[in-house]
Design a protein that fits this description.
single chain; mainly alpha
Length: 226
């Protein structure tokens, strides 16, 4: 990989000057940390209302939501109903994406339009990036964990080390959907982008084990393909 000529001197210094490189590297790390914090903050605000969590009574409900990523589906806890063909279509997912990445004329989405590319070459519709959705999923997981005692108890910061397993579980799950059906994966992601952005688009642990369990829960055959 060769850097653009505008950045050639910067690239040389980063290769040859260790202290300088560490300072420069901290800048994107700080921005990533800021994004994690904002995602978790919005998740904390939304999770109680979105899942109907009641202080003192939420412990059993949270224990039901966490396994197999049940919290990413539209659910009815009282009826123990899970819309298994609608992963990531629980309203909280689009709400957090919208609040953190799409809200306002100077939003992350407005400044980084190119990252919302289609993963299916014949189809032009924009998608939510896999890593962005995995981050939101991990934040919801973390917020639910804060309710695991039955009351909201804010844990330590939403750090990469603390919630890597949850994040990776979502990545593995999403890759599993894409592997099993690239067209259904694309449809899921472009519809989520449309819902989140307000755009109207036309057609044109052992994480492998836990994600595999979540894929077993998923009703892939009933998912939208178009």
């Amino acid at each position: 990989m060769h850097p653009h000529k505008r950045y050639a001197q910067l690239a040389i210094r980063m290769v040859t000057d260790g202290p300088f490189t560490r300072v420069i590297a901290s800048i994107p790390n700080q921005r990533i940390s800021t994004f994690r914090g904002r995602v978790k903050e919005k998740s904390d605000i939304a999770v109680a209302h979105s899942y109907g969590l009641v202080p003192g009574k939420a412990q059993e409900q949270v224990a039901w939501l966490l396994p197999e990523l049940i919290y990413i589906y539209p659910t009815d806890y009282e009826k123990r109903y899970i819309a298994e063909a609608k992963p990531y279509q629980h309203p909280i997912v689009a709400s957090i994406l919208r609040e953190v990445f799409f809200k306002g004329p100077t939003s992350f989405a407005c400044k980084n339009v190119d990252i919302f590319a289609s993963s299916l070459p014949p189809r032009p519709e924009k998608e939510i990036p896999m890593v962005m959705l995995a981050l939101v999923g991990a934040a919801i997981h973390a917020s639910l964990m804060d309710w695991s005692s039955g009351h909201f108890v804010s844990a330590s910061s939403f750090s990469a080390d603390r919630y890597y397993d949850a994040y990776n579980e979502h990545l593995t799950f999403l890759k599993g959907i894409k592997h099993n059906s690239a067209s259904k994966y694309h449809t899921m992601m472009y519809k989520l982008y449309a819902t989140t952005s307000g755009a109207t688009q036309t057609n044109g642990l052992n994480n492998s084990v836990t994600a595999s369990s979540a894929l077993t829960r998923l009703n892939l055959s009933a998912m939208d393909e178009d």
